[in-house]
Specification:
Helix content is about 40%, strand content about 5%. The chain has helices spanning about 15-50, 80-90, 115-135, 155-160, 170-175, 195-200, 215, 220-225; strands at about 55, 65-70, 95-100, 105-110.
């Protein structure tokens, strides 16, 4: 028998989903999707190689469908991979895989579904962040109170009466020309202490009383609450 899940709460649909994808794509489309995914990854790696070291490329300088950016060494700063991932939110991107398979690195997997404009937008964001890191290295930004260490920036923070940070609101929220108020994707919350959150889990679900029989018998009342 094939084991499709390793825990009671695991997803038994892992294999059927993969099977359905392969059957729906067919051999020709699957090959094409694979080729485009590999092309996308190598295009992005080539654009970013002057700004970040690229790990694990073959002897000809190519990668497969994903590549790893080495973000472990920015002399004169305390910038790490999570700082970059959080700053990416200000540019409208959820951070790629962090610290896997190598600690303090970013693994980028563009897949076949992104067009060139989107690939370039991500590359532009990463290049812009590297320039912000260089500003810290050159002493132009405070080593701790800077646009990366304070990222992400929420709408509440940007529109508050008081702005006590040593960089402008424009630099915080709209660092590139294509980031406009009409296209901006605002982060839902500001900087979070990841380690504290991982070690202090708490439930945000409604209390058990909210699921009482009386509420189930009167769903309109439950909705109004």
């Amino acid at each position: 028998a094939v084991v499709s899940t390793q825990s009671t709460g695991g997803s038994a649909l892992i294999l059927p989903i993969s099977w359905a994808y392969l059957k729906l794509m067919g051999p020709t489309a699957l090959r094409s999707a694979t080729q485009v995914a590999i092309l996308n990854a190598n295009y992005m790696a080539k654009r970013l190689e002057e700004h970040y070291p690229i790990m694990f490329r073959n002897d000809n300088g190519f990668c497969a469908h994903e590549f790893i950016l080495d973000t472990r060494n920015f002399p004169g700063t305390t910038i790490g991979v999570m700082d970059i991932a959080k700053r990416l939110q200000d540019y409208g991107f959820h951070g790629p895989t962090t610290s896997w398979p190598v600690v303090n690195t970013l693994m980028v997997e563009p897949t076949e579904s992104e067009d060139k404009a989107e690939l370039d937008r991500f590359c532009d964001a990463m290049i812009s962040i590297r320039k912000e890191i260089q500003e810290i290295q050159d002493g132009e930004q405070d080593p701790e109170n800077n646009v990366i260490k304070r990222a992400p920036h929420t709408m509440d923070a940007l529109t508050a009466d008081v702005w006590d940070r040593p960089y402008s609101r424009q630099k915080a929220a709209f660092p590139l020309p294509w980031l406009t108020s009409s296209k901006k994707i605002w982060p839902a919350c500001g900087r979070v202490d990841d380690a504290y959150g991982d070690q202090n889990v708490f439930c945000t679900c409604p209390p058990l009383e909210a699921y009482s029989i009386s509420d189930l018998e009167n769903p309109q009342r439950a909705i109004l609450q």
